[in-house]
Amino acid sequence: MVEKYGEDVSKHPKVDSEVWMKMGGENKKGRIHGIGRSLELAIINVNGSSSSVVGPSTNPNHASPTEEITAIATQMSQMQQQMQTQLDLQTESQKQLQIELQAQIEAHAQQVQAQLKAQADMHAQFQAQFQAQIQAQMQAQVEMQKLLQQQMHTQMQTQMEFFKTQIFPTLKISSPPSVKKHGENKI
Asked: How far apart are CA 91 and CA 141, in angstroms?
């Protein structure tokens, strides 16, 4: 543009189709892209050596801005509906996952609670058995001590009888006073 129109950009036109063709190269479909819609140029036809600019009003395939806006609004509405549908599906899926997760948590909590109760019951049963064993052992020890005391008493009496009948008469001594039976007068 500077080569053709000079350094002063205020004197440059908004669009020069020749410069666009030269810079962009020739397009096989006969169009130059990159000019934009705001410049009101839609298509540049290239026919052999000559080219011409065709405005939007002469092109039968070109839609009016209102039609384009309506088409874009329709596309946006359809996209919004699709996104809302996807969001609804994701929300429903998340709700279902939350319900399943809550059910799993509750089932696990019930399992843990049942295990804790079973352990508590087993501990109580073990403790009761342990206490019963200790009491049985203590009772057995008491019985054993009584039996031992009786055996010792019987053995002592047997020995005393033996001494009284066999040993003391041979030695010609009377029974010692501490050996007398309980209840006899000491002489």
From this structure: 73
